[in-house]
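re: ur question from yesterday

yeah so i grabbed the chain u mentioned. its 252 aa long if i counted rite. heres the sequnce exactly as i have it in my notes:
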Amino acid sequence: MKKFAVIALALVLLFSLASCQPAGEPAPGDDTTPDEKGEGVMTYAEYIAADMDARVVVETYVQAKQSWWEDKATVYTQDKDGAYFLYEMACSKEDYDKLVPGTKIRVTGHKSSWSGEVEIIDATFEILDGSFIATAKDITALLGTDDLINHQNEFVSFKGMKVEASTDADGNEAPFLYKWDGSGEEGDDLYFKVSSNGNTYTFTVESYLCGKDTDVYKAVKDLKVGDVIDLEGFLYWYEGVNPHITAVAAAK
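ran it thru and got these structure tokens back, copy pasting raw so excuse formatting
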């Protein structure tokens, strides 16, 4: 994820979510069948087929909010067919507060890509009637396959992942790192390695989404090399698969 100056970070921390359980079982009364698309709105298949830099219009549902500052919001969204990452969408603080999980929105912007992550930029939105909260889709079996990227940005789960050693800034083995290279400190992103079927992957607790006071941040800090764990999060992409993890538990 693109990082910004210290002032921006302070604003992020000011408006960050207190909890990091952005999605899960639908709340009682939620409509789990997404509405039909409005006139002129793309299906997910049409969105995927659109060229980069093309203007896109989608209807989707908020699953989690990553950050807000300077009237811009970064939001994870999804419908029954796929997911959309909205990067720095125009949004007042008043409207940001309305974007609770499940909220339906119509988004107009441009399709873009950054280091492999497909996102919507330069976006505006309006709130619509309707509610949908995705349940985590188990994609453990898709790790290492060409089909994995077809679930980019979705709320997903990984089962029975083994924690592997990372190398910290001093050359020592560690179960996690502050920042990708171990040069960070408490409050920065957490990076950790997990393996499945002989392949190792780097997962992240994105500090703008799940800060140091969240359960998932604390859980990753308590990991030990060799632990076998289940995880949930959003299938973000950065030079390859790099999920933004929102929950960690001992494997069942």
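noticed a couple things. The helical segments are 6-15, 44-49, 93-98, 215-221. also The two ends are 31 Å apart (CA to CA).
anyway ttyl
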